[in-house]
Amino acid sequence: MEGVLYSGLPREAAKELCLQPQGSEEARAFVSAFLKRSMPKKKDEAIQDVLTRKAVVLEHHCRRRKKPKRRKTKTFTAKQRRELGLFDIEPEQQRYELFLPLHELWKQYIRDLCYGLKPDAQPQMVQSKLLKADLHGAVVTVTKSKCPSYVGITGIILQEFKHVFKIITKDNKLKVVPKINNVFSVETDGFISYIYGSKFQLRASERSAKKFKLKGTIDL
């Protein structure tokens, strides 16, 4: 039985499979080339030494793909943004009527945020939502101020920074009003909320995680 299992292939079958006879020069050349490819770091003498002493375990070395380095996106610094005038509003664009659609969008945004602003809505809930809402497009009025010239300024908020509001008034004047020492009122569908600017010196993106006291203070 063993003679049948381990007998050599017939010549016809060997020719069809393109097999070289054992001990031929072609077979030796193939084995030598195969071993050099499989063990590129070893010299010919080392390969022959391994063949005469022990069995050769051929391993497949996978080439590790280098992960492409992520390029960090370069952003402008605050100084560069100021120098480039990215926050500047051109004089021809400083017109109140241009921003009325923005105000309408803001009102709809607040209605959705406050679940419709129904007449039975609790004022505290509306106040808490407004304090964390985006105020770009809101109509605000300066009701109290340590500087009398700011009192009565009313307009649409075009830009909110950490310390100031940029407001466009109905007479097409762009006002830069500091938050500190000023109290602002915001009216939405009959609900009036007050913002104490001294307690409100945050960027718009930072207010969503800020906890505000709903009870206002009388100090400016």
TrEMBL record:
<dbReference type="GO" id="GO:0005730">
    <property type="term" value="C:nucleolus"/>
</dbReference>
<dbReference type="GO" id="GO:0001682">
    <property type="term" value="P:tRNA 5'-leader removal"/>
</dbReference>
<dbReference type="Pfam" id="PF01868">
    <property type="entry name" value="RNase_P-MRP_p29"/>
</dbReference>
<keyword id="KW-0819">tRNA processing</keyword>
<dbReference type="InterPro" id="IPR002730">
    <property type="entry name" value="Rpp29/RNP1"/>
</dbReference>
<dbReference type="GO" id="GO:0033204">
    <property type="term" value="F:ribonuclease P RNA binding"/>
</dbReference>
<keyword id="KW-0539">Nucleus</keyword>
<keyword id="KW-0597">Phosphoprotein</keyword>
<protein>
    <recommendedName>
        <fullName>Ribonuclease P protein subunit p29</fullName>
    </recommendedName>
</protein>
<dbReference type="InterPro" id="IPR036980">
    <property type="entry name" value="RNase_P/MRP_Rpp29_sf"/>
</dbReference>
<comment type="similarity">
    <text>Belongs to the eukaryotic/archaeal RNase P protein component 1 family.</text>
</comment>
<dbReference type="GO" id="GO:0006364">
    <property type="term" value="P:rRNA processing"/>
</dbReference>
<dbReference type="GO" id="GO:0000172">
    <property type="term" value="C:ribonuclease MRP complex"/>
</dbReference>
<dbReference type="InterPro" id="IPR023534">
    <property type="entry name" value="Rof/RNase_P-like"/>
</dbReference>
<comment type="function">
    <text>Component of ribonuclease P, a ribonucleoprotein complex that generates mature tRNA molecules by cleaving their 5'-ends.</text>
</comment>
<dbReference type="InterPro" id="IPR016848">
    <property type="entry name" value="RNase_P/MRP_Rpp29-subunit"/>
</dbReference>
<dbReference type="GO" id="GO:0030677">
    <property type="term" value="C:ribonuclease P complex"/>
</dbReference>
<comment type="subunit">
    <text>Component of nuclear RNase P and RNase MRP ribonucleoproteins. RNase P consists of a catalytic RNA moiety and 10 different protein chains; POP1, POP4, POP5, POP7, RPP14, RPP21, RPP25, RPP30, RPP38 and RPP40. Within the RNase P complex, POP1, POP7 and RPP25 form the 'finger' subcomplex, POP5, RPP14, RPP40 and homodimeric RPP30 form the 'palm' subcomplex, and RPP21, POP4 and RPP38 form the 'wrist' subcomplex. All subunits of the RNase P complex interact with the catalytic RNA. Several subunits of RNase P are also part of the RNase MRP complex.</text>
</comment>
